[in-house]
Design goal:
By secondary structure, this protein is mostly helical. Helix content is 66%, strand content 4%.
């Protein structure tokens, strides 16, 4: 079942029509639109029957399936041509016809369907409506519809600005868009005119004439004997003659009174005249005209045999004689129009720029345009008269004026000229003046060429008629250029001199004058309006008064300036702004005043030179030579820049006495400054070789006093580089090749200097990080690094080629030495010194805290146990420290040295090991002393700072033994316990063996002499007990311990 009908909008909404079920959805849509278009919704069944006819249905299916050779299909609802019904009715009824439009013609309007799909693709029947099939209506007047569509729809869209129309022009530039738009407008206009010409033409007066019988010749023979018919024919022909004469005269009047001033109208007129004359000949070919002519010519051939009166016969002869003249006039007018169209068409491409181009484009086409006009005037048959050629030239001139106005206005109103930038407006006005000059120049060139051919036709036209309007227009443009130039001058004053006092009042007064003139609302381009000229004169009078005030302002401005440079700059500003009028002349006279001030400034500069020539002030960070030359050039520039501006001025070249004096002073001072520069430049050239000798110095030098290494770079080289760079930047002097070579190597020298400086700083840092105990052991290693530095102190100079390799080699040696020093320091710090500190801080006794008392019976056992434990720990630390010292010596000895360097002395190895053996003894001595001192402090009986007694160590009791009071335990027992504890502490050193400080360690021997077996040592060197027990400090503490107990015994006794 077909889907319900859809709404289709074509010139209004369409009503919905229910389709029979036998139709496909697509055909239902076609039938609905046909019925709606012809307003036959009530005859849908008849339309369906017509569509379903075999022939029509086959044609429709072929069209939808793409098998038809046409992509369109028409539906007509009109009376068929040459058809009569069965009743013999001469007016057949309209009927619906389906056709491709090849044989039938449209009488009113038709409906069309257009395929919008590829030719090989079928249009689906099961779809009601889509974009594959387009529906529309077309009327009988196809050309009229096309003309209206182009001019009323497409042309306004294309002519709108790009931002409004939405048209994507892509890469099409403005000229191409303008050319396309112009061609579009021309085509639309010509199409409309052609349609008008086809539909127009002459309309001959109609009269009631007797209808001719089938035997036409017999009818004419009968008419000659009928006076009334002959008279009626004669009157008809007289009327036609008057109509044709009037029609031809009206056309000529239209040419003279045409509203379009341009040359294109001339061509269109003659084209239209050809069409109108053609319409006369077409009208004369109608049956009605043929009847009249045949009847009257029959009368003239009758030799008095008819029944006409002689007077009537003479009237017919006169009428035909007049018609013959009219016929000749028609032929001549047609030939004239056709010939004129032929020649004027050759001008078409040359007059196109008058409508679409600019004045500059028109100037380029003037030679071709004048050559074509010369050709028309020379060989044209009808158009070569002075009247017509003058008219054509006048129309060309008028169109040039119109084009100039369009170029000046840019599509705006006349009052918008005030809003345009004066400079751009003046430029457009000047182009229009150039167009007039070029137009007249090419006209006279063409005229002179024709004069060389005396027998040919000459340009003897009225130049006043041709160029008069253009000259008046250009006079107006000259006034506008003067007025807007004045406006531009005063506008620039407010922009460039706004910081000067007093200028704003002058600009304000000028704006008032301009506003007064603008309020008069003149059409500036209407050159026939004399009221503008009167107001223009008044404007110039007021401007002249304002220029007088401006002149006074300029004089005051120059009077307050003392610097020549500033005076010339100010004069330049005024000259750039004031390009017209008397002010320009007055500015030229200011050069004399400025030149006089320049003479005084020369004297001042000469005094400055004499004062500072021995020690000129230098620019910051500028080297001496470049600084002196720059100072001299600065003084020279101060006098040369003004003199260069004065040189081409008539005031300076006048040759007056003062001028000659100033010129001599200038020449003398300029020569002195140039010589000053030459002297310093020559001194610099002479110093180049001396400075270059510094490059032959060695890279590194050793200070004779402190022995430190320093980079041996001559600072004169940097001075030379700075001088060369500054002189090269300043320009104007020749840079010697030797100086250029040094300048090119500046980066290399600086890199080498920085690298060597950093290298020596690192060398000092590494050597200073060596500990004193290892300095003698590492002396060969330091000598090895210095040996690597030696080439830079002996052989290598700043011009050597292997400096990079030398620096790399020294860096590698320094890195190895630094790693060795770090390793040695690490062993000393973490494995030797740290353990020595731990040994020195160990406590060999176990004394209870202050708040706790010791049991005398267990006191000695506790101390002996503590000593045994700590002795084991100290013994382990002793071995660990000795092993660390051996490793330290092995690391130092294993470091590779150059063969030229003397190896490590064995005595130094013994000294280092003996030093650390003594350090171990000192640490043990300190531990022993601290332990004994700890016992002594707990046995002390001295009062504390607060007056209280120290806490006791032992708890004793007073007992009665029958004889008296005694202590339990006794003083002897206490003394014995203290003595035993001290002995236990001293026994610790008996377990600590002394190192072998006579023989080099085995691992070191293998490194020193790998090919020889190691020498065995003497074995143990004994213990440290003897040295510890004999120490005075230890003996002193032991005695103090004994004394403390003895004092307690005395008190008890």
């Amino acid at each position: 079942r077909a889907p319900p009908a859809r709404w289709w909008s074509h010139a209004g909404a369409r009503r919905r029509v229910r389709q029979p079920m036998t139709l496909t959805p697509r055909i239902s849509w076609i039938v609905q639109n046909v019925a709606s278009a012809f307003e036959k919704e009530d005859e849908v069944v008849q339309i369906e029957a017509t569509v379903l006819e075999v022939v029509n249905l086959k044609k429709l299916n072929e069209f939808l399936e793409g098998r038809s050779k046409h992509s369109h299909l028409f539906f007509f609802y009109q009376r068929p041509d040459g058809f009569q019904d069965d009743c013999g009715d001469s007016e057949p009824k309209p009927r619906l016809t389906m056709t491709t439009g090849e044989r039938e013609s449209i009488k009113s309007f038709a409906v069309f369907f257009l395929r919008n799909a590829p030719a090989d693709r079928r249009i689906r029947h099961d779809v009601y409506s889509d974009h594959d099939l387009i529906f529309g209506e077309v009327k009988q007047d196809l050309l009229g519809s096309l003309a209206n569509t182009l001019s009323e729809v497409f042309l306004p869209i294309v002519a709108r600005p790009q931002s409004d129309s939405g048209i994507a022009w892509g890469e099409c530039d403005k000229e191409q868009r303008a050319e396309f738009l112009g061609s579009f407008e021309t085509f639309a206009a010509e199409l409309s005119e052609a349609i008008g010409a086809l539909s127009g033409g002459i309309v001959l007066t109609k009269m009631d004439l007797p209808e001719p019988t089938p035997d036409a010749r017999g009818s004419y023979e009968t008419a000659k004997d009928t006076p009334e018919a002959v008279e009626q024919y004669s009157r008809m022909l007289e009327v036609w003659c008057r109509d044709i004469e009037t029609f031809l005269e009206e056309n000529l009047d239209q040419q003279r009174d045409g509203s379009e001033p341009g040359p294109r109208m001339e061509l269109e007129y003659w084209r239209g005249r050809v069409q109108k004359i053609t319409s006369i000949t077409e009208k004369l070919k109608t049956q009605e005209c043929k009847t009249v002519f045949s009847a009257l010519y029959t009368v003239t051939r009758d030799q008095g045999q008819g029944s006409l009166m002689p007077k009537s016969r003479q009237t017919v002869f006169n009428t035909l004689r007049r018609w013959k003249q009219i016929d000749i006039s028609i032929t001549e007018a047609f030939n004239e129009a056709k010939d004129n169209v032929k020649y004027l068409t050759t001008l078409e491409k040359f007059i196109e720029p008058l409508y679409t181009g600019t004045p500059a484009n028109i100037i380029d086409t003037l030679p071709a345009l004048l050559n074509s006009l010369k050709m028309i005037h020379t060989i044209a048959r009808y158009y070569n008269t002075s009247e017509r050629m003058t008219l054509l030239f006048t129309k060309i001139t008028n169109q040039m004026i119109t084009n100039c106005k369009a170029c000046i206005l840019h599509g705006d109103e006349v009052q918008a000229l005030w809003d345009q930038h004066p400079r751009d407006l003046i430029k457009n006005l000047e182009v229009c003046l150039k167009l007039n000059e070029a137009y007249q120049e090419h006209y006279r060139i063409t005229k002179d060429k024709l004069l060389t051919l005396p027998k040919g036709k000459q340009f003897d036209f009225s130049e006043t008629l041709i160029f008069g309007r253009f000259d008046l227009f250009c006079r107006r443009l000259v006034k506008l250029i003067d007025m807007f130039s004045t406006i531009h001058q005063f506008s620039m004053l407010s922009v460039h001199l706004k910081s000067m006092d007093g200028i704003h009042a002058l600009v304000g007064a000028f704006r008032t004058i301009v506003e007064d003139f603008r309020r008069k609302q003149h059409d500036l381009l209407e050159f026939l309006n004399n009221r503008f000229d009167r107001d223009y004169v008044e404007f110039n009078v007021r401007i002249a008064d304002l220029e007088g005030a401006l002149q006074e302002f300029i004089n005051q401005s120059f009077a307050s300036i003392t610097s020549t440079e500033r005076s010339i700059d100010l004069l330049g500003k005024f000259k750039r702004i004031l390009q017209y009028g008397s002010l320009r002349t007055d500015l030229e006279s200011k050069f004399g005043v400025i030149f006089h001030n320049f003479g005084q400034e020369l004297s001042m500069i000469q005094d400055v030179y004499e004062k500072h020539k021995s020690q000129p002030p230098l620019v910051r960070n500028m080297p001496p030579v470049a600084g002196n030359i720059l100072w001299a050039r600065h003084l020279l520039r101060r006098i040369m820049d003004p003199m260069r501006r004065f040189h081409n001025n008539p005031v300076v070249l006048s040759g007056s006495r003062e001028t000659k004096k100033i010129t001599r002073t200038y020449n003398k001072l300029a020569k002195t400054l140039v010589e000053f520069e030459i002297v310093w430049y020559q001194a610099w050239v002479n110093s180049i070789e001396a400075a270059k000798s510094g490059l032959q110095a060695t890279l590194i030098v050793k200070h004779p006093e402190d022995g430190k290494h320093h980079v041996n770079f001559d600072w004169e080289i940097l001075q030379l580089i700075r001088e060369t760079r500054c002189l090269d930047w300043m320009g104007g002097v020749e840079i010697k090749e030797s100086a250029k070579l040094i300048l090119v190597q500046e980066a290399k020298f600086k890199v080498y200097y920085d690298e060597l400086s950093h290298l020596l700083r690192e060398y000092r840092r590494v050597t200073q990080s060596v500990r004193p105990i290892a300095s003698n052991l590492l002396r060969p290693h330091l000598d090895n690094l210095e040996f690597q530095l030696r080439p830079g102190m002996v052989n290598l100079t700043w011009t050597s080629m292997n400096i990079d390799g030398y620096i790399r080699c020294v860096w590698e040696s320094l890195a190895k030495l630094e790693q060795l020093v770090l390793t040695v320091n690490d062993i000393m710090e973490n494995r030797i010194d740290a353990n020595l500190r731990l040994v020195s801080r160990v406590l060999l006794v176990d004394i209870p805290p202050d708040y706790q008392l010791a049991n005398l019976d267990d006191f000695v056992d506790i101390q002996e146990a503590q000593v045994r434990e700590m002795t084991t720990w100290v013994t382990a630390k002793n071995y660990e420290i000795e092993a660390a010292v051996n490793d330290l010596l092995a690391v130092i000895v294993a470091f590779p040295l150059d063969s030229h360097i003397r190896g490590i002395s064995e005595s130094e190895i013994i000294k280092v090991k003996a030093h650390y053996n003594w350090s171990m003894y000192q640490s043990l001595l300190t531990a022993t002393k601290r332990s004994l001192q700890r016992i002594k402090e707990r046995l002390s009986v001295r009062s504390q700072p607060d007056g209280t007694l120290p806490p006791p160590l032992f708890d004793v009791e007073l007992q009665l033994d029958g004889l008296g009071v005694c202590l339990q335990p006794s003083i002897d027992d206490v003394q014995k316990a203290i003595t035993d504890s001290a002995v236990a502490v001293l026994k610790c050193s008996k377990m600590i063996e002394a190192w072998d400080t006579v023989t080099i360690p085995r691992n070191v021997q293998l490194l020193l002499n790998p090919n020889l077996p190691p020498v065995r040592g003497t074995g143990s060197q004994g213990t440290l007990y003897d040295r510890v027990a004999q120490d005075r400090e230890i003996l002193k503490v032991v005695l103090l311990l004994s004394g403390s107990i003895q004092s307690a015994r005395t008190e008890c006794d």
